[in-house]
Amino acid sequence: MKKVFIDGSAGTTGLRIYERLSGREDLSLITLSEENRKDPAARKDAIFGADIAFLCLPDDAAKEAAILAEGSDTCIIDTSTAHRTTEGWAYGFPEVAGLREKIRNSKRIANPGCHASGFISLAAPLTEYGIIAKDVQLSCLSLTGYTGGGKKMIAEYETAKTEPLNAPRLYGLSQSHKHLAEMTAVTGLLKAPVFCPIVADFPCGMEAVVALTSDMTKATVKELSEAYQDYYKNGLVHFQEGADENGYLTANAFAGRDDMEISVFGNEERILLVSRFDNLGKGASGAAIQNMNIVLGIDETTGLIV
């Protein structure tokens, strides 16, 4: 039986991972008491005693935990932003070409960001198949539920209910969002996308949209649909044709699930590429558990809701 430690199990991602893993008979969870959960020595012992350790921590704390793990044979899966473009860390999006094998053979895995997952799922096949040039500057609108903002934002939405929270809110206004580095690096794009993240008053769900015009690509809606069908044959990402709901696309349609749906809409002049998933599922904890399953050599969907 494999031993698993969740460092930071009190956070939103850590709690979801714990919920998904606590009922599995093939795993044994290492837990720390409330008084020891922030003690470096206790955490180091837990990491060294585990086969898999999830880091569900702020960036600086995740970097400290990675240092604590030095010298261990433990596979570290970091859900923070800290190591996503760091050399020696596998990027944990196995559906992107070449990454599944890197994940399988790695002891250091950086879990993707939620917004980044939506953008990468749409853009990676475009550059991989030469559908767009790598110097094209894309734009991405990404609508998320408020649980992606952590405990403070959750409390704001669920307790305060102040007037500004009643409508969707655009953020990342300086165009320096922390997900931009991985969004650019993993897709091979030469320019970071113009990125517009929006948080709205619903708990879980995410809808990422990338727009293409006829001057960016010669591919048709049909050809793009076929490209995604061909690209996403394994894993938790799947293409769905005609996925709209009477002309609408609901952002929280995949809340509570761990998979992701890709769809294509529009006409030959203006095309919309859409990715829908749960920001805490395929956008965080679901992806982390999927990566763990790959490392353990078992079915990727084990313990997940798809």
Biggest sheet, strands in spatial order?
8-9-7-10-13-12-11
Mean pLDDT: 95
Which descriptor suits the 3D outline?
A: globular
Query: How many strand segments?
Result: 13
Q: State the helix count.
A: 9
Named CATH architecture of the largest domain: 2-Layer Sandwich
Strand content: 15-25%
Cα-based radius of gyration, to the nearest Å? 19 Å
- The quaternary state of the protein chains shown equals single chain
Biggest pleated sheet: 7 strands, mixed
Contiguous low-pLDDT stretches (5 residues minimum) are none
Main attributes?
globular, 13 strands, 306 residues, Rossmann fold, 31% helix, alpha/beta
Summarize this entry quickly:
The protein has 306 residues and is of the alpha/beta class. It has helices at residues 12-21, 40-48, 59-68, 99-104, 114-128, 150-160, 180-187, 221-231, 281-296; strands at residues 2-7, 27-30, 52-55, 75-78, 90-91, 108-110, 139-145, 169-170, 194-200, 206-213, 237-239, 260-266, 270-277.
Structural commentary:
With 306 residues, this protein is α/β, with parallel strands linked by helices. It contains nine helices and 13 strands. 31% of the residues lie in helices and 21% in strands. A seven-stranded mixed beta sheet has the order 8-9-7-10-13-12-11. A six-stranded parallel beta sheet has the order 2-1-3-4-6-5, with helices on both faces. Helix 1 (12-21) crosses helix 9 (281-296) and helix 5 packs parallel to helix 7.
